[in-house]
Amino acid sequence: MIKIKSPTRIDLSGGTLDCWPLYSFLSGSYTVNLSINIFTCAELEVLKSSKAVKIHLVDLDYQKSFQDFDEFLSCKDPELKLVQVITNYFKPSFGFELITSSESPVGGGLGGSSSLTISIIKAFLKALNKNMSPHSMVTLAHNLEAEILMTPTGTQDYYPAVQSGLNIIQYDHSGFQSKCLKFDNFEFGEKLFLVDTGKAHHSGLNNWQVIKAAVEKDQKVLKHLENIKVISEKCVQNITSNNWNKLSELFQQEFNERVGLTAAFTSPEIESLKTHLLEDGADAVKICGAGGGGCVLVVADKLKHQQLFKRVEELKFKPIKIKPVFDEEKENS
Question: How far apart are CA 190 and CA 186, in angstroms?
């Protein structure tokens, strides 16, 4: 039995800019994100004496067995699309049982589907005794998920699942590369928590609106993208100089620029949370992923967390404690 756990992420700056060709339009950009202790899991057992395929998708309450790989691939159940596309790439010659699960809220803006894609890819690589570089794994996952979603996808969500830590991803005309930072003591991480709005979002659709507008040379959208690029550059500068106190201000600036791209990035729930939590002493409220629902990231002094959690619950939302993940998750065989 192969068991792979991969973290999800919170994006700190430059979200959406990781979608090609936006970063090319801007002559390059940065995206910064952080692995967190909300995990996805893929458990893969090779059935050496059988060609059967057994699939159990815990979060979808889906379980089905197939006589062989061809029967599995021919099944039209929509729940199977993710694992069908990934496993068809590897074309295993053996039967297998695959169990997947995720701790991330559905449509939470934490890159849950991307993390799960990486978990499944890692499981099959291990089963097939193959290696793949982080960059190659991200490129593969990015292209497979684009096929699954039939919408443009970025690349930032895969890195935190491949290499745990604080990822500074640079995009330019030659493509993209990531630098993963790890910290023995990360005090800024103690300020962070999430709030689940209870409303799922669709990152592909929100990002597609921005890509379409940029391709059509919408000057308002292009200006907001340029401003987000500048904010992300400042975020990188402050992180690499250990000047963490500036990030809350930058988060607030990015919130305003992101909503300027399209109103779909926010929602009445997000606006309500932002207003009340800032009034109650939070330093910043940041949209996670493509927004429009899902989770929001809150930055506040750790001593204020209990008070803010209570306020979140009064507003009928769910606070979620998180911790950064800096070490590679050990793969259990």
Answer: 7
Phi, psi of 123 (to 5 degrees): -65, -45
Fold of 2-181: Ribosomal Protein S5; domain 2 (3.30.230)
Closest by CA to 23, choosing from 152, 166, 175, 144, is 175
Helix axes 305-314, 268-279, angle to 10 degrees: 140
CB within 8 A of 149, min separation 6: which ones?
Answer: 204
Q: Which residues is 44 bridged to in the sheet?
A: 2, 98
For residues 287-309, average pLDDT: 90
On the question of a common fold for 2-181 and 187-321, the answer reads no
| 8 Å CB contact between 43 and 284 | no
Upstream peptide bond of 21 is cis (omega within 30 degrees of 0): yes
Tally of CB atoms within 10 A around 265: 25
Q: Which CATH class is domain 187-321?
A: alpha beta
Q: What is the pLDDT of residue 333?
A: 34
Q: Is the pTM of this model over 0.85?
A: yes
Between CA 44 and CA 47 the distance in angstroms is: 10
H helix and E strand count, the chain = 11, 11
Distance, CA of 124 to CA of 141 (rounded, Å): 13
| pLDDT tens figures, 107-132 | 888 999 999 999 999 999 999 999 99
Half-sphere exposure of 40 (CA within 13 A, CB side): 30
Domain boundaries, the chain: 2-181, 187-321
Centroid of chain to Cα 78:
22
Distance CA 36, CA 192 (A): 10
d(CA 197, CA 209): 22
Structure tokens at 163: 């290499």
